[in-house]
Design brief:
Blueprint: E1 16-26, E2 31-40, E3 42-48, H1 50-53, H2 62-68, E4 75-80, E5 96-102, H3 105-108, H4 118-131, E6 135-141, H5 153-157, H6 197-203, E7 213-217, H7 231-248, E8 255-260, H8 271-280, E9 288-292, H9 311-325, E10 338-348, E11 353-362, E12 371-373, E13 388-389, E14 391-395, E15 401-409, E16 412-420, E17 430-435, E18 440-441, E19 445-447, E20 456-459
Parallel strand pairs: 3-6, 3-7, 4-6, 7-8, 8-9, 13-18
Antiparallel strand pairs: 1-2, 4-5, 10-11, 11-16, 12-19, 14-15, 14-17, 15-16, 17-20
Length: about 475
C-alpha cells in the first residue's frame, strides 16, 4: 500500500508452537521480510488501570515467579507503551514498550511499573498449564484511568455520553486517594482520562487481530460521587464497553473476564462497595467471567493498599473463569452469589431489643461442593473508621444498620442480629440484609473451593 500498511488474513490454523517462519515478498521491489519463531495459539488482551499494569516484579514471591518464566517459551508477551492518546481511532500503535517476545525472566521481570503485567502473565500461565497450547498476551493498560477512556464513542453513546463529556476532577491520578502512594505523574497522563482516548490509541489498533478474549482490572478511578463516577454510572458504561468491544472485534461471544475490586480503604463515603455492585451488571452479558478479589486486601503493600501484591490468586481465579466459560471445562470458577433473603423468626429479648433471623439462599451453580466459613478480622488500622463490614441487617424501626452473624445451614446461611424495636419483630421489621458491603469486606464466607462469596445487599421477603 502507498502508506506502507498492509495486512494478510491467514486461514484458521491448528494451535502449534512450530516454530514457523512467515515471509512476505514484494514482487515490485524484489524484497522480502520474514518473521521467525512464530507460534499459533490463543491471544488475550489484558487491559485496565494500574492493577493490570502492576508488574510481576512487584508481586509476592517475585524472584521465584520471574525465574519460572524460563519454563514457558510457548507463551509470547507484548506491552503497549503509555505515551500516546488519540481523539480518533488509530490503525497502528504509536507507542510500543515491549514488542512480541518469548517469555523469559528477562521479558517478564524487567522491573516495577514497566513489564510484564502480573495479572496478565499469571492468567496466561495458568491457561497454558491447563491447555498446553501457545498463549499470546498483550498488556495494554494505563494507571489512573477511568472506564470511559477505554470506551469508543459508540459505547459512550449507549450511556448518554459524548467525546466532550470528560472528567474534570483529575484527583484519580493519585489512585490511593489518601496520599499513601502514587507512581503516576500528572503531566504523563494528560489526555489519558479523556473519553475514548485510550480506546482509540491502545485498543483500536488491535481490531484486525484475531483474539480469543480479554481480561480487565479497572474501576478504582470511577469510585466516588460526581460525573462519570459511582456504581450506577459504571453499571452502564462498563457493560456498554464490553458489548462494543465485541462488536468492534467482530466476536459477539468473545470471552471477557474482570476482577471485582479488592479491599482497600477508599475514603469515598461508601462508594467503593457501590462500584463493586456496578461491576456485577456485566454478568448479565453472556460469557463474562468475574474473579472477586474482595478477600485479598493488602494494607502492607509498599505500592499502596489499592495495589494488593497477591496477583497469583487473582490470575488463577480469572483463568478458572476462562477455562470454564471459553473452553468448556467442568470446574468451579466463582464464589457463592446470594439469590434471596427471607425472614425466619424474631423474638423480644428486652423491652427495646429483639433477636431476628434471616435465611440467605444462593445460586446453586455457585456453591461448588458446599459453603464454608473462615475466620477473618478487621485490621487494627481500620477499626477506628467504618471501613469493615461482614453480615449486617437494616432495621425498619430506626433505619440503622446492625452487625449480624452468619451460620451455615446446608446450602443456606442463617443470619442473626439484635435490633432495636419496641414490638414483636415481623418480616417488616427488617428492610435489608447485606454482606461485605464496605471498603474492606470481612470476607468470611466462601465455597469449599475457596472462591469468596460475592458481597450483596438484598431486600427481605416474608417468611418462606
Amino acid at each position: 500500500a502507498s502508506n506502507g500498511m498492509w495486512q494478510l488474513k491467514l486461514p484458521a490454523m491448528q494451535a502449534s508452537a512450530g516454530p514457523y517462519t512467515i515471509t512476505a515478498m514484494s514482487t515490485k521491489e524484489n524484497k522480502t521480510m520474514s518473521m521467525e519463531n512464530v507460534a499459533f495459539g490463543d491471544v488475550y488482551l489484558c487491559s485496565g488501570q494500574s492493577n493490570m499494569q502492576f508488574t510481576l516484579h512487584s508481586a509476592f514471591n517475585a524472584s521465584t515467579e520471574i525465574a519460572m518464566a524460563a519454563k514457558y517459551p510457548n507463551i509470547r508477551v507484548m506491552t503497549v507503551g503509555q505515551k500516546t492518546t488519540s481523539a480518533t481511532p488509530l490503525a497502528m500503535l504509536s507507542t510500543v514498550e515491549q514488542g512480541w517476545s518469548v517469555a523469559s525472566p528477562q521479558s517478564i521481570g524487567i522491573g516495577d511499573w514497566t513489564y510484564f503485567s502480573a495479572v496478565c502473565w499469571l492468567f496466561g500461565r495458568d491457561l497454558y498449564d491447563n491447555l498446553q497450547v501457545p498463549i499470546g498476551l498483550v498488556s495494554t493498560n494505563w494507571g489512573g484511568t477511568p472506564v470511559q477512556a477505554w470506551s469508543s464513542s459508540d459505547a459512550l453513546a449507549k450511556c448518554n455520553q459524548t467525546l466532550d463529556d470528560g472528567i474534570t476532577d483529575k484527583s484519580f491520578v493519585n489512585e490511593i486517594g489518601i496520599g499513601e502512594f502514587s507512581d503516576i505523574n500528572l503531566q504523563d497522563v494528560q489526555g489519558a482520562h479523556d473519553n475514548a482516548n485510550l480506546y482509540n490509541a491502545m485498543i483500536s489498533p488491535f481490531l484486525p487481530m484475531r483474539v480469543r478474549g480479554a481480561i480487565w482490572y479497572q474501576g478504582e478511578s470511577n469510585v466516588g460521587v460526581g460525573a462519570q463516577k459511582g456504581g450506577e454510572y459504571y453499571a452502564c458504561q462498563f457493560s456498554a464497553m464490553i458489548a462494543d468491544w465485541r462488536v468492534k472485534f467482530q466476536l459477539e461471544d468473545m470471552y471477557f473476564g474482570f476482577i471485582q475490586l479488592a479491599a482497600y480503604p477508599a475514603s469515598h463515603n461508601g462508594q467503593l462497595p457501590m462500584l463493586r455492585q456496578g461491576q456485577l451488571a456485566a454478568l448479565k452479558l453472556p460469557k463474562i467471567g468475574m474473579a472477586s478479589a474482595v478477600d485479598l486486601g493488602d494494607l502492607g503493600s509498599p505500592f499502596g493498599s489499592i495495589h494488593p501484591r497477591n496477583k497469583q490468586t487473582v490470575g488463577k481465579r480469572l483463568a478458572a473463569t476462562a477455562l470454564a466459560l471459553e473452553y468448556g471445562q467442568k470446574m468451579v470458577y466463582q464464589g457463592p452469589m446470594a439469590q434471596s433473603a427471607s425472614f425466619i423468626k424474631g423474638n423480644m429479648i428486652s423491652s427495646s431489643l429483639a433477636s431476628v433471623s434471616v435465611k440467605v439462599d444462593f445460586m446453586a451453580d455457585t456453591l461448588g461442593t458446599g459453603l464454608a466459613m473462615q475466620e477473618v478480622t478487621c485490621p487494627q488500622k481500620l477499626q477506628s473508621a467504618p471501613y469493615c463490614a461482614g453480615f449486617e441487617v437494616l432495621s425498619a424501626a430506626d433505619k440503622k444498620w446492625y452487625p449480624a452473624t452468619g451460620h451455615i445451614q446446608g446450602e443456606s446461611v442463617m443470619v442473626t442480629a439484635n435490633i432495636a424495636t419496641k414490638s414483636n419483630p415481623q418480616a417488616e421489621s427488617i428492610l435489608t440484609v447485606s454482606y461485605g458491603f464496605s471498603d474492606w469486606p470481612l470476607a468470611s464466607l466462601c465455597n469449599k473451593e475457596m472462591f469468596p462469596a460475592i458481597p450483596f445487599v438484598m431486600n427481605i421477603t416474608s417468611s418462606p
